[in-house]
Amino acid sequence: MPAISPLVGEPIKRVDAERLAGVLKALADPARLRLLSLIQSAPEGEASVSDLTAPLGLSQPTVSHHLRILTEAGLLERDKRGVWAYYSLVPSAIGAIADLLTPPRKRPTKRAR
After folding, report:
1. 37-69 confidence digits (pLDDT tens)
2. Domain tally for the chain?
3. Which residues contact 63 (CB under 8 A, 6 or more apart)?
4. Is residue 40 a part of any domain in this protein?
5. CATH code of the domain containing 87
6. 23: burial class by Cβ within 10 Å (0-12, 13-18, 19+)?
7. Which of 3, 60, 78, 105 is 20–30 Å from 111 (CA)?
């Protein structure tokens, strides 16, 4: 993820823009947004492909394809256990996207303790 937001008034480096665009492209699909939501709301904060096919109404290969794209974008982690793979959100990646897309004047200020 780029360290500088495209909204702070500083030019974003080409490589950072390409990386951010790839992540945003991965998020731009409604099925992928639903996958993130389903995984986050799962009881353990993780889900396997078989947990996700019925709620999405998609086939196993289609769900696996979407999970691969989200994993390659750095939004999900994959943990293989035996024959099953479980997916969970990468909270820091989701937070970084939110920070990059929030203009500095709109970000909540941190209070000193």
Report:
1. 999 999 899 999 999 999 999 999 999 999 999
2. 1
3. 35, 49, 52, 53, 56
4. yes
5. 1.10.10.10
6. buried
7. 3
